[in-house]
Amino acid sequence: MYLRLLVILVIVFLHGHVSIIMASDPDPIQDFCIPNPKFGSIKTLAHLSILPCKNSSEATTDDFVFSGLKSSGNFTETGLSTIPVNPTVFPGLNTLGMSFVRADLKVGAINPPHFHPRATEITYVVQGSVYSGFVDSSNRVFARVIEQGEVMVFPRGLMHFQMNVGKKPAMVFGSFNSQNPGSQKIPSAIFGSGIDVELLEKAFGLSPKQIGTMRRRFDPKTLK
Ligand SMILES: *[C@@H]1O[C@H](CO)[C@@H](O)[C@H](O)[C@H]1NC(C)=O
Ligand SMILES: *[C@@H]1O[C@H](CO)[C@@H](O)[C@H](O)[C@H]1NC(C)=O
């Protein structure tokens, strides 16, 4: 009787374990896989397409070097610039289960609350002083100013944020344990996605006019 129970428990445990493994980036079964340009490029990140690799004898050193992080990207009106680097722009990363981002923040600028559904992020402050933090699933906040040379980790799927609190521009480098971490900005997901106004009014206790203001502010058509 106990033995049978034990067997069932082991099966349940293994099943859970296997599903966890299946839910992450797969382990590579070859050294690398540079997508063959003949079959197009990896374009849509929400639904990543798996492309055939080019013959490894055709791979070159340049396939494994990315030169697009030497300077910042374009800044938004709120003073944030991000350059996400994943296999869409750096094919050498394909199948390796990693990606990264360079973020620049002007003085006072913020990286609004957002989360990555498929990756934990490690952020390294290359320059500046950045108030950084995340909120766990019991709504406890873990946040403080991290200085140049310090590192903070944002656990997978948890909402996190940053603000340049220094007197000069800040730069952070983030790396992800997924080649396709995904990124969902909370303000845009809520006010810029077209959720029914009545629901938003009830959820936030705001008037239709206030919801309208928020919707215009986070309208994806005007948001840069
Ligand atoms: C890859 O290239 C090598 C050298 O050109 C060739 O011998 C091999 O057949 C190619 N493999 C495939 C699968 O095309
Ligand atoms: C910045 O904007 C310009 C003009 O829209 C564009 O050509 C360029 O590729 C952008 N740079 C980055 C890093 O996105």
TrEMBL record:
* Amino acids binding oxalate: 111, 116, 121
Q: List the disulfide bonds.
A: 33-53
GO terms for biological process, alphabetical: plasmodesmata-mediated intercellular transport; regulation of root development
Keywords, alphabetical: Apoplast, Disulfide bond, Glycoprotein, Manganese, Metal-binding, Secreted, Signal
State the signal peptide span.
Answer: 1-23
Q: Name one GO molecular function term.
A: manganese ion binding
* Keyword Glycoprotein in record: yes
The record's comment on protein family reads:
Belongs to the germin family.
- Name recorded for this polypeptide: Germin-like protein
